[in-house]
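Researcher: Re-running this chain for the archive, since the previous output was lost when a drive failed. Same request as before.
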Amino acid sequence: MKITELFEVSISPHIRDEDSVSKIMWSVAIALIPAFIASLVFFGNDALRLVFVSVCACLITEYVIRKVRKRDCTISDGSAVITGMLLAFCVPPTVPSWMIAVGAFLAIALGKEIFGGLGMNVFNPALAARAILLAAFPSEMTRWTSPDAVTTATPLGMVKEGLTDSLPQYYDLFIGNVGGCIGETSAIALILGGLFLVFRKVIKIELPLIYVGGVFGLSALVGRDPVYEILAGGLMLGAFFMITDMVTTPVTRVGGYIFAGGCAVITVAIRSWGGYPEGVCYSILIMNAITPLIDKYTAPRRLGQILQKKNV
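Model: Regenerated structure tokens:
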């Protein structure tokens, strides 16, 4: 019997992993379901409308662009679905359908495909589109309503305006019974989704812990309520679904720690001294921009390089 019949000969690396891009992406989509259900409970048909329009617009945009560029269609990998869901989760319930569709187009066209597609984008597509929408339509993007459809400020907005007497209780923040973006208000739903990803080994728990712990500690240091800071706003969504993005965050372990810590510092700085009450979106986008630099200086050096440096 020939040896080739006993063994499969192939080049390195000899690593087997049953996970694929598609499996990972659909796992993330499944992890977002608790937050989606919470959005339906608290914001009703508006949440369903925004998620449906956003996801459909992302899928259509990616399909058309890939066809125009004569490249393989990638909508089945689930990445466009995740982008659509995350973008919808980052907007108020009153945003009109055409606006979320424009945002979805920008997320795929400018946030992803312009760089070459999945795995090549520099910025998180959903956050990039949200930042553009906030700059282009500030009134619509900051028009908040409570779950009972009453116009109100977000919890972080109340803190920024000094309305501490009317702040929601911790319990309301934990379950999501407050005004805000449709997919960011329920901390418990986002935590459940994040723990699912940890259990599936899609993400590592260290980065969310560093980010949440950093915001908690720094908030206490500057005199803000640390529990309120981690439960309010988009912190939990960012911690489990944004800073753990494999494409736009550092690939090295130390680099990931620096990234999460940097996001925590910038988030607290914007919330404390910036004109906008929330800092999660911009903190992640800023750290996305310096991810290549972080990877460069945290990449492990080969033994030959170390010896060569010592000889010099």
